[in-house]
Amino acid sequence: MSGLKKNYIAGEWVEGVSGEDNINPSDTTDVVGTYAWADSAQTERAIEAASAAAPAWGQSSIQKRSDALDAIGNELIARKEELGELVAREEGKTLLEGIGETVRAAQIFKFFGAETLRLNGEIFDSVRPGLDVTITRAPLGVVGLILPWNFPIAIPAWKVAPALAYGNSVVFKPAELVPATAHVMSEIIVNAGIPDGVFNLVMGSGSEVGTTIVNHQKVTGISFTGSVETGQSVARGAVSRMAKVQLEMGGKNPLIVLDDADLTTAVDCAINGAYFSTGQRCTASSRLIVTEGIYDKFVSSMRERLSTLVVDHALKAGTDIGPVVDERQLQKNLDYIQIGVEEGAKLVYGGERLSRDTPGFYMSPALFIDTSPNMRINREEIFGPIASIIPAKGYDEALAIANDTDLGLSSGIITTSLKHASHFKRNIQAGVAMVNAPTAGVDYHVAFGGTKSSSYGAREQGSYAKEFYTTVRTAYTQA
Ligand code: UN1
């Protein structure tokens, strides 16, 4: 198994129990690499090592942790072209998107490098004279991080960086489909002088590695991003042994377009939100809710813009939309096209499998119009380059439709009305609200997360990340 990319457990690079190929979705003849998959026993070793290393790391100098995270960020920036290409090669997003994602990951590490120095507490007078009360934050101990495939480096960064910043040790499980970038990021972390056992990379299947992390008594906290279904089972496992859990799951994100919208802004935001990154973002705008006065103009501008988008190899110059991540997801997307058509939605653009010079999972971006809120295509998360337009009479109806969903991650409105924009921000049932901006593509230094079935537990990112990665300690001192 020469060239096998190994796991990192207890301060050593180790082989797994099998080696799995990582395939480029733009060209299935291109094997990105072969990655060692661990089993439960190896995962347990990683957890034990993390547990043994946690106390010293939790009490280590904040300067040391800050410097290490900053150095990791600098190294990621310095290698952004190489890593951006790797992201595009293994996941299928375009090269520009891959580089952008890598820069974001770097910025996240640098942000948390500085956050390490800002962690503070509070002092109260006690209700009992002579007592002082201090509130401080302590690390959780061992955190298990379970990752999705759609952001191979940014989401790992926004879990690993705060975990380490706040003094936790880490068991990091990348998604099965995209271990390559995670592997390089892990090498960079290891080389930044993080002590043995503090950071462990364990690649492998959800059923083996993921389940072991979820069920192990020594994993104090679990942060998961992925599907609602898997998230629910992670939560059940975590709660049954009283572990802290944070879940970030699906979206069925609405983008409302009002009559008074600037049409170009509306189309730019809808195209970006619905189709960029092949629609494979939980913040994607899958429901475009459009009011009567602008409906026809919006539909025709969308069709026009869609016809200019180039679907091709993720690394080819000029590609706007790369392939779908794998055959299973492509099949699922095509099934939903069929479901939409059978439900009576009008498919006015795309929705077909495409062939290109290289064998890959290509699909034309799809637009349904004249759809209704109860159709399955408007209720279930598809996770592909598919959007539906739902007509609405006016703002009130559009808002009601937008909120008529079990999910509540991101949302948006395109309007020039301050009144509607303000009302929307207060009344949309979502964790993120965008005004005249795409629903996807969030800043790295502010809180991120959703309502309803989209998220569970504390928010991620920004200084809010400490709510999950630390625990609060209240100390009473008699002078
Ligand atoms: C973004 O839109 O910038 O899996 C981030 C996802 C989300 C992250 C989206 N967790 O798509």
Structural class based on helices, strands and sheet pairing: alpha/beta
Small molecules (ligands, ions, cofactors) in the structure: 2-aminohexanedioic acid
Largest sheet: 7 strands, mixed
| Shape type | globular
- Sheet with the most strands: spatial strand order: 14-17-18-13-12-20-21
Q: What is the gyration radius calculated from CA atoms? A: 23 Å
Termini, distance in Å? 64 Å
CATH topology of the largest domain: Aldehyde Dehydrogenase, Chain A, domain 1
What does this molecule look like?
- The chain has 479 residues and is of the alpha/beta class.
- It has 2 domains: 4-249 and 454-478, 3-Layer(aba) Sandwich (Aldehyde Dehydrogenase, Chain A, domain 1); 253-435, Aldehyde Dehydrogenase, Chain A, domain 2, CATH 3.40.309.10.
- Helix content is 39%, strand content 23%.
- It has 14 helices and 24 strands.
- The strands form 7 sheets. A 7-stranded mixed beta sheet has the order 14-17-18-13-12-20-21, sandwiched between helices.
- Helix 3 packs antiparallel against helix 6 (179-191) and helix 4 (95-116) runs parallel beside helix 5.
- The longest helix is centred in the first third of the chain and has 22 residues, at 95-116.
- It starts with 6 loop residues before the first strand and ends with a strand.
- Bound molecules: 2-aminohexanedioic acid (UN1).
- Residues 148, 150-151, 155, 225, 248, 281-283, 440-442 line the site of 2-aminohexanedioic acid.
Brief sketch in words of this structure:
The chain is of the alpha/beta class and 479 residues long. It is 39% helix and 23% strand.
